Amino acid sequence: MNRYYYDLHIHSCLSPCASDDNTPNNIAGMATLCGLNIVALTDHNTCKNCPAFFEAAKRYGIIPVAGMELTTAEDIHVICLFENLENAMAFDEEIDKRRIKIENRTDIFGNQFILDGEDNIIGEDKYLLSNATTVSLEEVPKLVGSFGGISYPAHIDRPANGVIEVLGTFPETPYFGIVEISRREKVEEYIEKYSLEDKKVIISSDAHYLENMRDKENYFELDDEPYSSALVRSNLFKFLR
Q: Is 188 helix (H, G, I), strand (E, B) or coil?
């Protein structure tokens, strides 16, 4: 068993509210400087920069996780993580059908750049990615699970798009075995106040700018023998499940 420091909620320049400097290679490089070992790329309602991030992460020795921060029909943010890139990209195609496609105003919301593994711009999503989809919260666990993924509510301690702020409480259904809390000092308060003792707690940065990425603090203890990034990622998902 070894410690693997993680951040499972980071946005690239494909998210309209993120910095254009948040390229896959810059994220991987900053993760290295922060002492992180496992990093998930979770752009709003898309996985299209995950292939580039996997390339960049390999160069920097980071274990990448393909993910998405899904916005439900209720305007609740949910983290969706996938053990392999292929399933993530298939999920991306499914969510693309469920998006409400409003043309992006880059002068208001920002750019939405799709990059390759060398940080070259190879495309741009012309429809705003940060608005709600037609996927209800009730649908999320089953839908994500059908693609082999794991889902859990994001930043439940924040007012913007947090499940508790939107619904007034933490829902009994659908069942989520994991919650994300953005501030470590809020963990005990939220566990006690909302009876979350049966949940695993993930603490991640939700970084939209490179300077928002945090130094290593939160970790998983995972088996890694015989070592491979695929084995570590597989054991991470076994732990989360």
A: helix
C-alpha span between 235 and 241 (Å, rounded): 10
**Helix, strand, coil % in the chain, rounded to nearest 5:** 30, 25, 45
What is the tens place of the pLDDT at every residue in 107-153?
999 999 999 999 999 999 999 999 999 999 999 999 999 999 999 99
Tokens of 66: 């393909």
Helices (H) and strands (E) in the chain, counts: 7, 10
DSSP secondary structure letters along 93-127: HHHHHHB---B--TTTT---EEE-TTS-EEEE--B
State the DSSP string of 143-172. Answer: HHHTTTEEEEES-TTSSTT-HHHHHSS--S
Tokens of 33: 């400087």
pTM: 0.96
* Chain segment 49-97, per-residue pLDDT in tens: 999 999 999 999 999 999 999 999 999 999 999 999 999 999 999 999 9
Spatial distance between the Cα atoms of 77 and 42, rounded to a whole number of angstroms: 11
